[in-house]
Amino acid sequence: MIRLAWRDIRKYWGRSLVAVLLFALPVTFFVSLFSVLSTSIYLDEHPENTLTYVQTDSPPGDGFSPVFRGYLKGTSGDLSTRLWVTALPESAANEDLSIPPAGTIDLPVNPARAIGVDIGDTVNVGGVPVTVHDLHYHRNAIANISDFSSLDSNWWLVEHQPPTTYLQLFSADPMPPSLGNIITHGLVTSVLFAPVWGIILILTAGLAAPIFTVAHARMRNTLELLSCTGARRSAIRLLFLAEGLMLAALGVFLGLLSSWAISEATIQYLLGCSVRWDYHAGALFSAPMILAAAVASQLPLLGGQRRTPPRWVAIPGPVLLLGGIALIFTTAQWLVLGVMLIVMGGALCGLTAVTLLGWCAPRLPLLEAMAARNAFRHFRRSSAAIGAIVLTTLATTGIGLWATIFMEPDGVLTEGVLAAPNIEVTTPDGYAATLDDLEADFGPRIDLYSAGPTDQQGYGGPWIDLGIGDVQLVTTPELLDRLNLPVEVRNQAKAKLAERTPVSARELGMERPGELLTPDMASGHLIYRGSLFPNSPSAWQLVELQRLSQRSGMELTAANHSAVTRAISGTTIAFCVVFVFAIVATILALTTFESRQDRQRLHDVGAGPRALRRYRISQLLMLALPGLAISALASLLMWWASLL
Predict the structure, then answer these.
(1) Which residues, 6 or more positions from 463, have their beta carbon under 8 angstroms from its beta carbon?
(2) What superkingdom heads the lineage (predicted)?
(3) Which of 92, 259, 272, 573 has the fewest Cβ atoms within 10 angstroms?
(4) pTM score, two decimals?
């Protein structure tokens, strides 16, 4: 039976290839997405977090063999920054953690850019001159213990920072990927993750079922032939199961391979390093897909020879869809259940559409009526195809909707680009090269400062749209021209600043307390918070800004939130269109394989090429239009519910 299944796959290689692609698409999308996220999380953490260590405020005594770990001051010329340094012996090196040679140091990108140093430059770290051996995206600087063994517990400390700590190595187990942490962190976490598993199972089953109900509708004929030759039911079931598992395995393999290629290209483009491919995510999404294929392969063996669907099957889909939409916009506790209902309702709406096609068939022109009756007659195949289209469209367009909903509305800025350092510095001199490039593309900059940390510092100040949580903002009066302010308010504020009088945030129409000062009015220690450029970026420039953000040590983004919203929504919609088109094309391609017999009958009775072409197009439209119409209606309902 296994040989028969493989022979059948090769004989009908066209539909088998399309089925494999349909299996591969969701695996490619989800695994590449989680691999990119897993790599970002890993790079944001530090390799030493894979080690077990103890902390103490003083040296623990002889025989402990400690390595230093604490804050040191890094200087290059007149620029200085704070470094969190871990000094380790070379024996501590492993595949995740490399120790630089003596006399060198590995620096994080952010502080390196802040003091304007690159690979090969000399930097003074805690009074020890060392050469920059490499730059990495981790948070800590890695040094060789031989260069810092002479330091005692009196390391240079920044005010209000914790004292020096010591690190002892016990193990160097590699840190598992993020999804691995989720799965392996105990029974409670696994139970909490169960609803997500449910959504994954429903999504994969919803995409796997059409493969066999559409591509293998002919299997019912195979079933009859095998039954007539005396084949046992168990042997027939094994044949169907073997073919389903083979197609799923090929699709999953192709999806995993393409997900690695896509995620590797993405990380190389953004960061210039290799991706940490999340094999846990690969197993997480591949296992339900193969399981769903095994179940779906038995669909031709279920049910009788009913030629038309019962009328009641048109009800569950819309009911579940409306119920899910109502739940996701109530409270957060019902979000997961609402998403699951939307997924199930969208898949079952295929039966609703097929029932409506049977009702509309007598009212359509001849060829369109024949196509509608054909879809109604093969209701299992047609409803599965329409349900897959609805399922895919809802899953992808929902991402764009939620991205738009959760983006903040327009703030005090009207347009431009905002560049903010990722580390606290007093001057932008270290970022001179990056700022000069931004000025060439987006116009002259305005530097933004705050008058030192205050008790009110946090993410609640009036200048948070500028990336500043401090109460006082120190900059030039030209900033007022960039703010979304009435002309009268802007002129009054400029007049007060000209008189060396601070302008309160309430005078600018802001609810939270704060002050706007010019540099000649500020006193004390100024902290550089960022620079504002006047010209708004295009969609491609936003992509380039994101890439530059990873390597420049600064956070670069559009100053106006609506520009980011448009870019995210536009990119998501573009991806959704491509993804939905791929799913729709594969489903329709599978359907056309099965409709050749109908077209051959028309040809035998004298239908011309034009009529055959019209009939084929009608067959495709009978599946594509209901699926896209239901998806559009559900998306409109979700958008309307989000406004309530």
Answers:
(1) 469, 470, 473, 505, 514
(2) Bacteria
(3) 272
(4) 0.64
